[in-house]
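For reproducibility, we list the full input for the zinc ion complex.
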Amino acid sequence: MTTIGEVDRTCALCGKTSEQMTLGSTNAMGAPDLDLRPSEMQRSTMSLWIEHCVHCGYTNKRIDLSVVGAEAVLPAQNKPEQALSLIEQFLTASRVADLTGDKTQAAHYALCAAWAADDKEETDTAVRCRRRAIAYFNAATDTPDADPDQRLHTRVRMVDLLRRCLDWEAASQLAQEIMTEGADGVIGDVVRFQLKLCKQGDANCYTVADVD
Ligand SMILES: [Zn+2]
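The corresponding predicted structure, in tokenized form, follows.
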């Protein structure tokens, strides 16, 4: 069950107050997608994962948190006082997270934008958002102090992102690298499944339960 609250929040950027919906609790029944998008009911709570200021467009985990330079990454608003699309909200949150140096969070929000685009069947936008997520995930894993387990899980996830972008070659190559480095258990099963899908030219969405 999903519980939702309401709170008045003052924007750290423009100083105006707006009502924000907050997620009290939710649940996910069943397996997540291969890119770890949660199942329902959590799946449908995406708009509650971020806060959005309708006055200036600022979007972040909480809009009362200030981030230096955030004004520069807000999208130009055509209609002031009107909320941006969920896709644009997550892309904005992604750029704000990037400003803080948190590449993993920037990647996560870009992927959320892709999920919002998937829901609207905006295929080209979804690909653009996934490519952005891939770039941030690359930056997050390409550091000497990256946790090896975290890095492995991120790279397995990236195989799915590349495949969903129809980038069969890059997806297969990354999957092969992961297999060569040694992937066992569920990870091995997922990566082999991804290789099969790439071979078949299949860019559809699958869940972890679909892995055979
Ligand atoms: Zn604002």
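The first helix runs from residue 86 to 99. The beta strands are 3-10, 17-25, 51-52, 59-60. Both points were considered when choosing residues for closer inspection.
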